[in-house]
C-alpha cells in the first residue's frame, strides 16, 4: 500500500544556514507526527547529514519532509534531492570512513543508522536523491558498532 | 426488513440465551442488554450494508472496555455465534414456506454473518494483543531500575534478555538518570543477563560511550567466565570498557573513583574515638 | 551566530547559545585557538547544553578544535551534551576520542581544575 501524503514541507538547501533550517523544520514535523525524546534528535541529525551532503557535493538542492502513514504505522519521510555531480561508486560512498568531501565520511552511512528505511539513488552528471523513512515506535536493530 | 422489524423480540431472545449459556458472567444483566442492543444494531447494519468498518471500531472499543474485566475470547466469539444462530433460525422460520426465497436469503446471510464473527473475533484478539504489548512496555520500564546508591553513583542491574528495543530503553533511561542525578560513575551489573552475543555487547559498548559523552564513567560487572570466553571468541573489543568481577567490587571501584573511600575511613575513625 | 568566549581566570569558556552553522563552528575553533595563545589559558570549556544536534561535522570540528588547543598547551572539556544527543551520537558511530567531557559547566570547571593544576591532589585522594 503506498504511503499517503498528509503534510509536506520543502526546504531549499543552498548554504550551511539552510542545514539548520531543514533540521529544525524536520524536528517540528516529526513532533507533529508524534515522535518524542531522542527520536526527534535522531530525525534532526539524519536531516543534518543529508542536507550537508547536498551543500558539500552539489551546492544546492532541496529537502522534502512529509508526514506519512502506511496501514497502522505512522512516520516521517525525508527526501534530499540535488542535481549535483552525482556519486560514482555508491557502495564506496556508503562505507564508513569514506569521504570525497570534507565530512568525517560518516555522513550518509551515519544517517542510514538513524532511520528505518534508507535509499540512495545517484547517477553521475544527473544528481543524487536520498530517501529516508522513520516510523513511530519501530526500533530496528542497531547496526554493528564501528 | 425482517430482522429490524423483530428487533425487540430477537434481541431479547439472544440476551436470554447469552445468560443461559453463562457467557459474560463478569457483566450484569443490564450491561449485557445495553451492549447487546448496540451489537445487534451493528450486526444488522453489516448485513444490510456489507461494510464491517463501524462494527470493527465498535468491537475494538467494546473489547477495550471488557478485557480488563476478564472477559475471554471464547465468550465474545460465543455471543456473536449465538446471535448468528438466533437470527438464522428466525429467518428460517419466516421463509420456510418458500424454499427458493429461503435459499436466496441464506446465501446472503451466511457469508455476511461469518464475516461478522470473524471481524469481532479478530478485533478482540488485536485489542488484547495491544493491551499485552502495553503491559510488556510497563514491565520493561520497571525491570531496569536506575538506582542511586550514593551521591553521584548510579547502579543499573540488568536482568533478563536484552534485545535491541530493551537496550535502547535501558540506555535512554540511564542517560536521563545521569543528568537527573548528576552521576559521575555508573555501575552496570549484567550478572542477570543469560547470554551476551555480539549484538548485546555492541549495545553495551554504545551505552558506555554515550554515558562517557555525558561525563560519566561506566564500570561493567558480572561478566561470567562463559560470557568472557564468548566475547573473546567472537572478537568483541571491550578494552575501552572498565570491567570488575562482581557488583561489590564494582561499587568499591566506583567509590574509589569518586574519592569516597578516604573520606569514609576518616569519618569512621572520628566516630570511633569518643 | 557568533559564540561568546568568556575569560575566567586561566580558563576560557565558550557557551554556545543556539544552533551553529558550519561557518560558526569553524569560527569558534579558530577564535578559541587564537585566544588560548593570547591569554595563555590553561584550559577551555565548550558548553554545548543548548545545542539541539551534534552531527558528524560538528563532532569532527570539536575534535580538531581540542587537538589544536592541546598543541597550544591547554586542555579542552566539552560540557553539557544532552542525553538525546549522546544517544544519537553513538547511533551515528561518532565519538569524541580522548576529548574530556563533563555533565555541565560546573563539572567542567572541576575537571579542568584537577587536570591542569590539581594533579598532586588527585593522586593523594585516590590513595596512590
Predict the CATH topology of chain A.
Answer: Heat Shock Protein 90
* Strand order of the biggest β-sheet of chain A: 1-2-3-5-4
- Give the largest interface pair and sizes: A-C, 33 and 23 residues
CATH architectural designation of chain A:
2-Layer Sandwich
- Helical fraction of chain C: 40-55%
Q: What's the N-to-C terminus distance of chain A?
A: 35 Å
Per CATH, the class of chain A reads Alpha Beta
What percentage of residues of chain A falls in helices of 4 or more residues?
A: 25-40%
Any idea of the CATH class of chain C?
Alpha Beta
Looking at the overall shape, the CATH architecture of chain C is 2-Layer Sandwich
Q: Tally of extended strands of chain A?
A: 5
Radius of gyration of chain C: 14 Å
Give the count of structural domains of chain A: 1
- Unreliable spans of chain A: 1-5, 139-146
Helical element count of chain A?
A: 4
Tell me about the largest β-sheet of chain A.
5 strands, antiparallel
Oligomer: heterotrimer
In short:
Chain A has 146 residues and is α+β, with helices and mostly antiparallel strands. Chain A is built from four helices and five strands; from the N terminus they run E-H-H-E-E-H-H-E-E. Chain A has one domain (4-145): Histidine kinase-like ATPase, C-terminal domain (Heat Shock Protein 90, 2-Layer Sandwich), CATH 3.30.565.
Amino acid at each position: 500500500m503506498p504511503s499517503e501524503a498528509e503534510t509536506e514541507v520543502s526546504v531549499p538547501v543552498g548554504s550551511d544556514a539552510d542545514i539548520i533550517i531543514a533540521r529544525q523544520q524536520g524536528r517540528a514535523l516529526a513532533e507533529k507526527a508524534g515522535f518524542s525524546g531522542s527520536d526527534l534528535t535522531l530525525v534532526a541529525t539524519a536531516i543534518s547529514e543529508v542536507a550537508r551532503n547536498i551543500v558539500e557535493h552539489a551546492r544546492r538542492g532541496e529537502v522534502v519532509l512529509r508526514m506519512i502513514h502506511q496501514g497502522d504505522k505512522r512516520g516521517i519521510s525525508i527526501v534530499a534531492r540535488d542535481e549535483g555531480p552525482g556519486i560514482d561508486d555508491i557502495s564506496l560512498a556508503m562505507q564508513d570512513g569514506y569521504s570525497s568531501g570534507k565530512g568525517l565520511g560518516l555522513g550518509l552511512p551515519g544517517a542510514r543508522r538513524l532511520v528505518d528505511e534508507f535509499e540512495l539513488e545517484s547517477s553521475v552528471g544527473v544528481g543524487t536523491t536520498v530517501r529516508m523513512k522513520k516510523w513511530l515506535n519501530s526500533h530496528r536493530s542497531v547496526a554493528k558498532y564501528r | 426488513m425482517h430482522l429490524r422489524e423483530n428487533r425487540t423480540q430477537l434481541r431479547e431472545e439472544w440476551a436470554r440465551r447469552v445468560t443461559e449459556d453463562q457467557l459474560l458472567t463478569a457483566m450484569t444483566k443490564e450491561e449485557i442488554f445495553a451492549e447487546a442492543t448496540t451489537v445487534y444494531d451493528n450486526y444488522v447494519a453489516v448485513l444490510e450494508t456489507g461494510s464491517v468498518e463501524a462494527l470493527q471500531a465498535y468491537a475494538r472499543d467494546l473489547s477495550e472496555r471488557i478485557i480488563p474485566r476478564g472477559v475471554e475470547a471464547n465468550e465474545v466469539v460465543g455471543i456473536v455465534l449465538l446471535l448468528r444462530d438466533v437470527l438464522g433460525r428466525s429467518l428460517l422460520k419466516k421463509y420456510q414456506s418458500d424454499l427458493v426465497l429461503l435459499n436466496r436469503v441464506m446465501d446472503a446471510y451466511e457469508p455476511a454473518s461469518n464475516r461478522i464473527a470473524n471481524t469481532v473475533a479478530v478485533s478482540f484478539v488485536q485489542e488484547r494483543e495491544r493491551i499485552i504489548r502495553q503491559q510488556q512496555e510497563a514491565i520493561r520500564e520497571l525491570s531496569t531500575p536506575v538506582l542511586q546508591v550514593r551521591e553521584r553513583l548510579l547502579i543499573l542491574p540488568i536482568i533478563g534478555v536484552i534485545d535491541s528495543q530493551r537496550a535502547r530503553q535501558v540506555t535512554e533511561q540511564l542517560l536521563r538518570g545521569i543528568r537527573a542525578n548528576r552521576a559521575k560513575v555508573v555501575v552496570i551489573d549484567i550478572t542477570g543477563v543469560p547470554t551476551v552475543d555480539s549484538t548485546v555487547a555492541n549495545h553495551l559498548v554504545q551505552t558506555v560511550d554515550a554515558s562517557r559523552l555525558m561525563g560519566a564513567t561506566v564500570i561493567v560487572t558480572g561478566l561470567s567466565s562463559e560470557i568472557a570466553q564468548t566475547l573473546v571468541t567472537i572478537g568483541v573489543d571491550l578494552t575501552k570498557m572498565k570491567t570488575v568481577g562482581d557488583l561489590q567490587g564494582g561499587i568499591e571501584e566506583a567509590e574509589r573513583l569518586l574519592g569516597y573511600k578516604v573520606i569514609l575511613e576518616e569519618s569512621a575513625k572520628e566516630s570511633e574515638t569518643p | 551566530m557568533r559564540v561568546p568566549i568568556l575569560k575566567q581566570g586561566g580558563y576560557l569558556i565558550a557557551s554556545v547559545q543556539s544552533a551553529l552553522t558550519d561557518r560558526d563552528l569553524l569560527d569558534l575553533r579558530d577564535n578559541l585557538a587564537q585566544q588560548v595563545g593570547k591569554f595563555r589559558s590553561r584550559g577551555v570549556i565548550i558548553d554545548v547544553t543548548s545545542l539541539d544536534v551534534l552531527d558528524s561535522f560538528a563532532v569532527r570540528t570539536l575534535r580538531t578544535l581540542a587537538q589544536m588547543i592541546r598543541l597550544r598547551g591547554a586542555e579542552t572539556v566539552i560540557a553539557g551534551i544532552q542525553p538525546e544527543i549522546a544517544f544519537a551520537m553513538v547511533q551515528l558511530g561518532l565519538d569524541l576520542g580522548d576529548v574530556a567531557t563533563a555533565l555541565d559547566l560546573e563539572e567542567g570547571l572541576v575537571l579542568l581544575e584537577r587536570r591542569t593544576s590539581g594533579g598532586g591532589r588527585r593522586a593523594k585522594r585516590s590513595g596512590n
